[in-house]
Specification:
The chain has helices spanning 27-34, 36-39, 79-89, and strands at 2-9, 14-21, 49-52, 55-57, 68-72. It is of the alpha+beta class. The longest helix has 11 residues, at 79-89. The chain is elongated. It starts with a strand and ends with a helix.
Length: 90
């Protein structure tokens, strides 16, 4: 068994779970073992964007001991459009 972290944050709450998974587990396995999908019903495994230590990765990527799996929320605003709107206000 190895330990990995699964993290997810909303504007109101940050969640960090330490999960014990079998060796050779992938990101999907770790997310399922964590139980985070039941804590946040809005998360759908098939549409998740994830990364390990801020580097985007695929759900099938094998995890290593002590890695942090980050579940990303979709952007609320396009950064380029937000910049453009701020520039127009000036």
């Amino acid at each position: 068994m190895i330990d990995v972290e699964v993290v997810y944050a909303t504007p109101e709450k940050q969640t960090l779970l330490i999960v014990h998974v079998p060796k050779k587990s992938n990101v999907t396995d770790a997310i399922k073992y964590s139980g985070i999908l039941s804590q946040f019903p809005e998360l759908k495994l098939e549409t998740l964007h994830v990364g390990i230590f801020s580097t985007p990765c695929e759900l099938g990527r094998e995890v290593k001991s002590n890695e942090r799996i980050e579940i990303y929320r979709p952007l609320q605003n396009d950064p380029k459009e937000a910049r453009r709107q701020r520039a127009l206000k000036k």
